[in-house]
Protein backbone atom coordinates (compact mmCIF):
# COMPACT_ATOMS: atom_id res chain seq x y z
CA UNK A 1 0.00 0.00 0.00
CA UNK A 2 1.45 3.40 -0.95
CA UNK A 3 2.07 5.90 1.85
CA UNK A 4 -0.73 8.38 2.54
CA UNK A 5 -0.64 11.79 0.92
CA UNK A 6 0.47 14.73 3.00
CA UNK A 7 -2.12 17.40 2.26
CA UNK A 8 -0.83 20.87 3.17
CA UNK A 9 -3.83 22.77 1.76
CA UNK A 10 -5.67 25.10 4.14
CA UNK A 11 -8.45 27.66 3.72
CA UNK A 12 -7.51 31.33 3.61
CA UNK A 13 -8.96 31.80 7.09
CA UNK A 14 -6.18 29.61 8.53
CA UNK A 15 -3.31 31.20 6.61
CA UNK A 16 -1.07 33.81 8.23
CA UNK A 17 0.84 36.77 6.91
CA UNK A 18 4.59 36.09 7.04
CA UNK A 19 5.16 39.85 7.10
CA UNK A 20 3.35 40.13 10.43
CA UNK A 21 6.19 40.49 12.94
CA UNK A 22 6.71 41.12 16.63
CA UNK A 23 9.65 42.41 18.65
CA UNK A 24 10.75 40.11 21.45
CA UNK A 25 13.02 41.56 24.12
CA UNK A 26 14.97 38.69 25.64
CA UNK A 27 16.94 39.27 28.80
CA UNK A 28 18.69 37.36 31.54
CA UNK A 29 20.85 39.12 34.11
CA UNK A 30 22.96 41.63 32.17
CA UNK A 31 22.33 40.07 28.76
CA UNK A 32 19.63 41.63 26.58
CA UNK A 33 18.77 41.52 22.90
CA UNK A 34 15.78 42.38 20.70
CA UNK A 35 14.57 39.86 18.14
CA UNK A 36 12.19 40.46 15.24
CA UNK A 37 10.18 37.31 14.64
CA UNK A 38 7.22 36.13 12.57
CA UNK A 39 4.43 36.64 15.09
CA UNK A 40 1.88 34.13 13.74
CA UNK A 41 4.52 31.41 13.41
CA UNK A 42 5.78 31.62 16.97
CA UNK A 43 2.25 32.06 18.32
CA UNK A 44 1.31 28.81 16.58
CA UNK A 45 4.07 26.90 18.36
CA UNK A 46 4.41 28.61 21.73
CA UNK A 47 1.59 28.84 24.23
CA UNK A 48 3.45 31.68 25.98
CA UNK A 49 3.63 33.83 22.83
CA UNK A 50 0.12 32.87 21.81
CA UNK A 51 -1.15 34.35 25.07
CA UNK A 52 1.24 37.32 25.03
CA UNK A 53 0.26 38.39 21.52
CA UNK A 54 -3.49 38.12 22.09
CA UNK A 55 -5.06 41.50 21.41
CA UNK A 56 -1.97 42.79 19.61
CA UNK A 57 -2.81 41.51 16.15
CA UNK A 58 -4.47 44.74 15.08
CA UNK A 59 -1.67 46.97 16.34
CA UNK A 60 1.29 48.01 14.19
CA UNK A 61 3.87 47.45 16.93
CA UNK A 62 3.74 44.11 18.67
CA UNK A 63 6.18 43.55 21.51
CA UNK A 64 6.77 40.80 24.05
CA UNK A 65 9.13 40.65 27.01
CA UNK A 66 10.84 37.33 27.76
CA UNK A 67 12.97 37.17 30.90
CA UNK A 68 15.12 34.41 32.34
CA UNK A 69 16.36 33.21 28.93
CA UNK A 70 19.79 33.88 27.44
CA UNK A 71 19.61 35.68 24.07
CA UNK A 72 22.00 33.09 22.57
CA UNK A 73 19.62 30.30 23.57
CA UNK A 74 16.61 32.15 22.15
CA UNK A 75 18.52 32.68 18.91
CA UNK A 76 18.98 28.92 18.57
CA UNK A 77 15.34 28.42 19.51
CA UNK A 78 14.31 30.72 16.64
CA UNK A 79 16.58 28.87 14.22
CA UNK A 80 14.90 25.62 15.17
CA UNK A 81 11.49 27.27 14.89
CA UNK A 82 12.13 28.52 11.36
CA UNK A 83 14.13 25.65 9.89
CA UNK A 84 13.53 22.57 12.09
CA UNK A 85 17.34 22.40 12.24
CA UNK A 86 19.73 23.29 15.05
CA UNK A 87 23.29 24.57 14.76
CA UNK A 88 25.55 22.21 16.69
CA UNK A 89 28.43 23.57 18.72
CA UNK A 90 32.02 23.70 17.47
CA UNK A 91 33.16 21.03 19.91
CA UNK A 92 31.01 18.70 17.85
CA UNK A 93 31.43 20.37 14.44
CA UNK A 94 34.77 22.05 13.80
CA UNK A 95 33.35 24.00 10.88
CA UNK A 96 30.80 25.83 13.04
CA UNK A 97 31.60 29.50 13.60
CA UNK A 98 28.55 30.69 15.52
CA UNK A 99 27.55 30.18 19.13
CA UNK A 100 31.15 29.39 20.03
CA UNK A 101 31.11 30.66 23.55
CA UNK A 102 31.02 28.35 26.51
CA UNK A 103 27.89 28.98 28.62
CA UNK A 104 28.75 31.72 31.10
CA UNK A 105 27.32 29.76 34.03
CA UNK A 106 29.42 26.66 33.29
CA UNK A 107 31.45 26.14 36.45
CA UNK A 108 35.15 25.30 36.44
CA UNK A 109 34.55 21.86 37.88
CA UNK A 110 32.25 21.05 34.97
CA UNK A 111 34.21 22.72 32.19
CA UNK A 112 35.04 19.37 30.61
CA UNK A 113 31.40 18.49 30.08
CA UNK A 114 30.07 17.89 26.61
CA UNK A 115 29.06 21.30 25.24
CA UNK A 116 26.45 19.90 22.86
CA UNK A 117 24.46 18.49 25.77
CA UNK A 118 24.77 21.91 27.39
CA UNK A 119 23.49 23.75 24.34
CA UNK A 120 20.63 21.31 23.83
CA UNK A 121 19.57 21.56 27.45
CA UNK A 122 19.79 25.38 27.42
CA UNK A 123 17.55 25.64 24.36
CA UNK A 124 15.24 23.00 25.85
CA UNK A 125 14.81 25.09 28.99
CA UNK A 126 14.05 28.12 26.79
CA UNK A 127 11.41 26.09 24.92
CA UNK A 128 10.00 24.97 28.26
CA UNK A 129 9.85 28.61 29.37
CA UNK A 130 7.74 29.58 26.33
CA UNK A 131 5.73 26.33 26.55
CA UNK A 132 6.61 24.96 23.11
CA UNK A 133 6.10 21.20 23.30
CA UNK A 134 7.01 20.49 19.67
CA UNK A 135 10.43 22.09 20.07
CA UNK A 136 11.01 20.29 23.36
CA UNK A 137 10.35 16.95 21.66
CA UNK A 138 12.73 17.82 18.81
CA UNK A 139 15.47 18.68 21.30
CA UNK A 140 14.89 15.51 23.30
CA UNK A 141 15.33 13.51 20.09
CA UNK A 142 18.55 15.42 19.37
CA UNK A 143 19.89 14.69 22.86
CA UNK A 144 19.05 11.00 22.49
CA UNK A 145 20.68 10.86 19.04
CA UNK A 146 23.84 12.50 20.40
CA UNK A 147 24.00 10.05 23.28
CA UNK A 148 23.55 7.04 21.01
CA UNK A 149 26.38 8.01 18.69
CA UNK A 150 28.83 9.01 21.44
CA UNK A 151 32.18 7.21 21.61
CA UNK A 152 32.29 4.58 24.32
CA UNK A 153 35.73 5.67 25.53
CA UNK A 154 34.35 8.91 26.98
CA UNK A 155 34.95 9.09 30.73
CA UNK A 156 32.55 10.54 33.25
CA UNK A 157 33.64 13.71 35.05
CA UNK A 158 33.47 12.56 38.66
CA UNK A 159 35.92 10.39 40.54
CA UNK A 160 35.00 6.70 40.52
CA UNK A 161 35.69 4.17 43.18
CA UNK A 162 38.10 1.36 42.38
CA UNK A 163 35.31 -1.01 41.44
CA UNK A 164 33.65 1.38 39.02
CA UNK A 165 33.58 0.34 35.40
CA UNK A 166 35.59 2.29 32.86
CA UNK A 167 34.63 3.32 29.35
CA UNK A 168 31.22 4.87 29.98
CA UNK A 169 29.34 6.20 27.02
CA UNK A 170 28.88 9.95 26.97
CA UNK A 171 26.67 11.23 29.79
CA UNK A 172 24.98 14.57 30.32
CA UNK A 173 27.24 16.18 32.94
CA UNK A 174 26.20 17.44 36.34
CA UNK A 175 25.83 20.97 34.94
CA UNK A 176 23.31 19.74 32.38
CA UNK A 177 21.41 17.83 35.06
CA UNK A 178 21.24 20.97 37.21
CA UNK A 179 20.13 23.17 34.30
CA UNK A 180 17.32 20.81 33.32
CA UNK A 181 16.10 20.22 36.87
CA UNK A 182 16.29 23.91 37.82
CA UNK A 183 14.62 25.07 34.61
CA UNK A 184 11.76 22.56 34.23
CA UNK A 185 9.12 20.75 36.26
CA UNK A 186 8.54 17.11 37.18
CA UNK A 187 6.49 16.48 34.02
CA UNK A 188 9.56 17.13 31.87
CA UNK A 189 10.42 14.09 29.75
CA UNK A 190 14.04 15.18 29.29
CA UNK A 191 14.43 14.60 33.02
CA UNK A 192 13.30 11.01 32.49
CA UNK A 193 15.77 10.52 29.63
CA UNK A 194 18.66 11.78 31.76
CA UNK A 195 17.63 9.54 34.65
CA UNK A 196 17.41 6.50 32.36
CA UNK A 197 20.86 7.22 30.92
CA UNK A 198 22.38 7.48 34.37
CA UNK A 199 20.60 4.38 35.64
CA UNK A 200 22.02 2.18 32.90
CA UNK A 201 25.33 3.84 32.00
CA UNK A 202 26.25 6.07 34.91
CA UNK A 203 28.36 5.46 38.01
CA UNK A 204 26.93 3.79 41.08
CA UNK A 205 24.40 5.67 43.18
CA UNK A 206 26.99 5.83 45.97
CA UNK A 207 29.35 7.77 43.74
CA UNK A 208 26.58 10.18 42.75
CA UNK A 209 25.53 10.61 46.38
CA UNK A 210 29.07 11.78 47.09
CA UNK A 211 28.36 14.66 44.73
CA UNK A 212 25.30 15.96 46.61
CA UNK A 213 26.52 19.53 46.29
CA UNK A 214 26.53 19.17 42.49
CA UNK A 215 23.48 17.06 41.63
CA UNK A 216 19.94 18.24 42.47
CA UNK A 217 18.28 16.26 45.24
CA UNK A 218 15.22 15.62 43.08
CA UNK A 219 17.46 14.01 40.46
CA UNK A 220 18.77 11.59 43.08
CA UNK A 221 15.22 10.79 44.19
CA UNK A 222 14.17 10.17 40.58
CA UNK A 223 17.23 7.99 39.99
CA UNK A 224 16.55 5.84 43.05
CA UNK A 225 12.87 5.48 42.07
CA UNK A 226 13.91 4.49 38.54
CA UNK A 227 16.28 1.83 39.89
CA UNK A 228 13.46 0.34 41.94
CA UNK A 229 11.12 0.30 38.93
CA UNK A 230 13.68 -1.38 36.66
CA UNK A 231 16.24 -3.16 38.88
CA UNK A 232 17.52 -5.36 36.03
CA UNK A 233 17.99 -2.47 33.58
CA UNK A 234 15.71 -4.07 31.04
CA UNK A 235 14.91 -0.68 29.50
CA UNK A 236 17.50 0.06 26.79
CA UNK A 237 17.99 3.73 26.01
CA UNK A 238 20.06 2.79 22.98
CA UNK A 239 17.21 1.01 21.17
CA UNK A 240 13.98 2.29 22.75
CA UNK A 241 11.23 4.14 20.92
CA UNK A 242 12.21 7.86 21.05
CA UNK A 243 8.59 8.92 21.39
CA UNK A 244 8.69 7.47 24.89
CA UNK A 245 10.39 10.73 25.86
CA UNK A 246 7.93 12.98 24.03
CA UNK A 247 5.33 15.17 25.69
CA UNK A 248 1.82 15.38 24.33
CA UNK A 249 1.31 18.61 22.34
CA UNK A 250 -1.04 21.07 24.01
CA UNK A 251 -3.88 22.51 21.94
CA UNK A 252 -4.40 26.25 22.39
TrEMBL record:
Q: Which residues form the signal peptide?
A: none
What is the protein name for this chain? BTB domain-containing protein
Q: Which residues form the BTB domain?
A: 22-90
Q: What is the lineage of its organism?
A: Eukaryota, Fungi, Dikarya, Ascomycota, Pezizomycotina
Organism the protein comes from: Amniculicola lignicola CBS 123094
Q: Which Gene3D superfamilies match?
A: Potassium Channel Kv1.1, Chain A
Amino acid sequence: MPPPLIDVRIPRSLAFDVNSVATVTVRRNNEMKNFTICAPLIAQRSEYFNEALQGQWRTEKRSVELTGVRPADFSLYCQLLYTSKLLINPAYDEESTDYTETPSDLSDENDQEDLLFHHLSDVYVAAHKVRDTITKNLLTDAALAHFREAPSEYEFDVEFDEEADEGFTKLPGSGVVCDVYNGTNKACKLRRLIVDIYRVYGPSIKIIEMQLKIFPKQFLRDLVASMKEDPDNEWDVQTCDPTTYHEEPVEF
